[in-house]
Amino acid sequence: MRDINKFLHVIAIHDFVAGHEVLEDRWREWKNIPEKREESFILKALINGSTALALKAMGKHAPALQVWETFLKYEPLIETLNCADSLLYEEARIRLHVEYKKLF
User: Fold this and answer.
1) For a disulfide at 68, which of 52, 85, 87, 89, Cβ 3.0-4.6 Å?
2) Residues 6 or more apart from 95 whose CB is under 8 A from it?
3) How do residues 49-80 score in pLDDT, each as one tens digit?
4) Per-residue pLDDT, 78
5) What does the alpha-carbon distance between residue 42 and residue 76 come to, in Å, rounded to a whole number?
6) What is the Cα–Cα distance from 19 to 102, expressed in whole angstroms?
7) CB–CB of 23/31 below 8 Å?
8) Whole-angstrom Cα distance, residue 93 to residue 8?
9) DSSP type of residue 42
10) Cβ atoms within 10 Å, residue 91
11) Distance of alpha carbon 71 from its chain centroid, rounded?
12) pLDDT at 1
C-alpha cells in the first residue's frame, strides 16, 4: 500500500498519530530531492494536519492550533501542484478539514 493510501486509512480510523508516522520517512527523503521538494511540502502539510488532530484529541488545544497553522500554510500547494497523487492529496486535505471541524 502506498504511503498516501495508508495515510487516508489511518485518518479514516482516527489514528492521527499514525498519520504522522506513515508520511514522515517519505517527507524526509523528498525534501532533499529538488524534483520532489515542492511535493514534500504537501506531505509536510498533511503530517502537520494529522499531528494537530492528534494533539487536539489529547486535549492540547493551543499546540494543536499552532500546528494546524502550519498545515494551512502549505495546504494551498495541494491545489496548485500537479502530480501523480494530486487527487489523493486533495482527498486527504478534505478529510483533515472534516476531522478538524469535529474536534474543534
Assistant:
1) 52
2) 8, 11, 12
3) 999 999 999 999 999 999 999 999 999 999 99
4) 96
5) 9
6) 17
7) no
8) 10
9) H
10) 17
11) 7
12) 64
